[in-house]
Automatic annotation (TrEMBL):
PROSITE patterns documented for this protein: TPR (PS50005)
GO CC field: plasma membrane
Protein's cellular compartments: Cell inner membrane
Bilayer disposition of the protein: Multi-pass membrane protein
Pathway, per record: Porphyrin-containing compound metabolism; protoheme biosynthesis
The entry's keywords: Cell inner membrane, Cell membrane, Membrane, Porphyrin biosynthesis, TPR repeat, Transmembrane, Transmembrane helix
Record protein name field: HemY domain protein
Organism: Crenothrix polyspora
Protein role: Involved in a late step of protoheme IX synthesis.
TPR repeats: 369-402
Domain HemY N-terminal: 34-140
UniProt keyword annotation of Cell membrane present: yes
């Protein structure tokens, strides 16, 4: 830089000297080199042409450099100000990098301080405040986080979407689901097709257990390719499953049936969803309405869960229900669950002997707590209290061992 300025200064001077030398040599070759006379009012000045030309060249050089110097003086304050801005800008860039590094290393409070200190001089204050907000969130300073987010919105007009998405994301990670939903609802009204907004909106509804809102959101998620097709189907199945369960908890069989009719056929065919529907109807006290459908499904698709549900149906014709189950025994003679269901239905039909036989066979194949309990009830009804107590005892021991196994598995 200094060398460049030196060339700018010495270059014209050297050219001036060369010009004077050449002019002097050229004029010296004439016999009469000439003269110059300048008269102003009563004052006059006479000099040789060589001296005048040399004076003119030197004068031009002096005045040229004088005015350049004056221009430099005039621009000095603005240059000093620009230099100060450049220094502050460079420091803010270094502060942003340092803040990101500190935040990545877990020094959240240090990151906040360095980011906020230099945010006002940065070319990207939004990044400073958003990064500081994340650091504040990481150390649990939610008030500071909200303060930084507000400053980010104030310092970077037109960044409502970026600030809002960050705020919603941080609220979700802090389990502030209602606050996140409020922010995302506002963002959704601004841009209804924004992929990140839709994704976070889905997460908020899921965290709040608002499956009806997820159900309404699914077409938009699918249309805007926010999730893969397989993920959409799984989410749809999860939404309808939970809606069925909620309707069952309210004991509203009509709502359960309406929901089931709204479910697309490709979702109905998914593993386990039909079982949730039948269970919901049974829990809502309307098992008799789905008994025929459940019977048909078991005839073409043998499933242990559906079989247990069949045994739980409060049928209007228990004898027919029992007869249907006995027909299945010809196809599945060693099915412990079917034998258990037959024992349960036999009790309902007052077929004590058949119930005892089926339950005994079920226990021989695969002992279960329910089979022991039901067999104990049969024996107790026949006044065989010792045998009944023995069955209850075996059932309790089996239940205890199952609980211990579950605890061991968890630990």
């Amino acid at each position: 830089m200094i060398m460049k300025r030196l060339i700018y200064f010495l270059g014209p001077l050297l050219l001036a000297i060369v010009a004077v030398f050449l002019l002097n040599k050229w004029l010296g070759g004439f016999e009469t080199p000439g003269y110059v006379l300048i008269g102003i009012a009563g004052w006059s000045m006479e000099t040789s042409l060589v001296v005048f030309a040399i004076s003119l060249i030197i004068g031009f050089y002096v005045f040229y450099n004088f005015f350049r110097f004056m221009g430099w003086l005039v621009q000095l304050p603005s240059r000093y100000k620009s230099r100060g801005k450049r220094i502050k800008f460079n420091r803010s860039q270094e502060a942003l990098i340092a803040g990101l590094v500190d935040s990545a290393e877990g020094n959240f409070e240090k990151a906040e301080k360095v980011l906020i200190k230099h945010a006002s001089h940065s070319g990207a204050p939004l990044l400073h405040y958003l990064t500081a907000a994340r650091a504040a969130q990481s150390r649990g300073a939610f008030e500071k986080r909200d303060e930084y987010l507000k400053k980010a919105a104030d310092k970077a007009p037109g960044s409502d979407l970026a600030v809002g998405l960050t705020q919603a994301e941080l609220s979700l990670s802090g389990n502030q689901f209602d606050q996140a939903l409020q922010t995302l609802t506002k963002l959704h009204s601004i841009d209804p097709t924004h992929a990140s907004v839709l994704r976070l909106l889905h997460q908020s509804y899921q965290s709040l257990g608002d499956w009806e809102s997820i159900r309404k959101l699914i077409p938009t998620l699918n249309k805007n390719k926010v999730m893969m097709e397989a993920e959409i189907k799984l989410l749809e199945a999860e939404a309808f499953s939970n809606l069925l369960k909620q309707a069952a908890e309210r004991g509203d069989a009509q709502e359960v049936q309406t929901l089931w009719s709204d479910i697309p056929s490709y979702i109905k065919r998914m593993q386990g969803l039909s079982a949730i529907y039948f269970a919901a109807m049974i829990n809502a006290g309307a098992g008799a309405k789905v008994e025929e459908e459940l019977t048909k499904l078991l005839s073409v698709n043998w499933d242990e869960t559906l079989l247990v549900l069949f045994g739980s149906v409060q049928s209007e014709d228990v004898a027919k229900q029992f007869a249907v189950a006995e027909k299945w025994l010809g196809l599945h003679p060693k099915d412990a669950i079917l034998l258990n269901v037959l024992g349960k239905l036999g009790l309902k039909c007052n077929e004590q002997q058949k119930a005892e036989d089926y339950l005994s066979q079920s226990i021989n194949i695969e002992p279960t707590v329910q089979a022991y309990q039901l067999l104990g009830d049969v024996l107790f009804a026949r006044n065989e209290k010792d045998k009944a107590c023995e069955c209850y005892k075996y059932g309790l021991e089996l239940a205890s061992s199952e609980i211990v196994s579950q605890i061991d598995a968890v630990s």
